[in-house]
Design a protein that fits this description.
The chain has 142 residues and is an alpha+beta fold. The protein has 2 domains: 49 residues; 79 residues, PH-domain like (Roll). 34% of the residues lie in helices and 33% in strands. The longest helix is centred in the first third of the chain and has 21 residues.
């Protein structure tokens, strides 16, 4: 029994967001005659998104009968399922979910945000593979 999840950096959502941001910059220039310096500074915030759309990195997660593997661009990680005590789902104040693997040794391993599927899908899959899960909502410390 194997499970796999994969996502591309060049998603429809990313491209639409980039188009909306460029449209906003153009609107600022046309309607309120924003200075080019201000527009350049504002455009710096979009550089990571532009880089992801152009580079189109592949991110994902694979769960086999023995291992949990994740990857995003050049970064990757793997943990044997038998070493996992539980998987924590920490909901942050911006409603994103951070996934942390707690090992039997007490060590914590953070999964790359881009490599994680929706929390519901991941939790259902982990339960199918016999891995315990835990949810923590809006913790300011951690």
């Amino acid at each position: 029994m194997n499970w796999s999840f994969q996502r591309n950096g060049r998603s429809r959502r990313a491209v639409i967001g980039l188009i909306l941001f460029v449209s906003l910059l153009l609107a600022l220039r046309i309607w309120i005659h924003a200075a080019y310096g201000v527009l350049i500074v504002l455009s710096l915030f979009a550089l990571p998104l532009v880089w992801d759309v152009l580079r189109n990195p592949v991110s994902g997660m694979d769960i086999t009968e023995n291992d949990l593997l994740w990857y995003s661009g050049r970064a990757c990680g793997a943990v044997a399922l038998k070493e996992i005590a539980l998987v924590r789902f920490d909901t942050r104040l911006d409603f994103s979910v951070r996934v942390t693997i707690v090992l039997h040794s007490g060590r914590k391993v953070r999964v790359i945000q881009a490599a994680t599927p929706t929390p519901d899908d991941l939790e259902k899959t982990l339960v199918r593979f016999g891995v315990a899960t835990q949810h923590h909502h809006f913790n300011l410390m951690n």
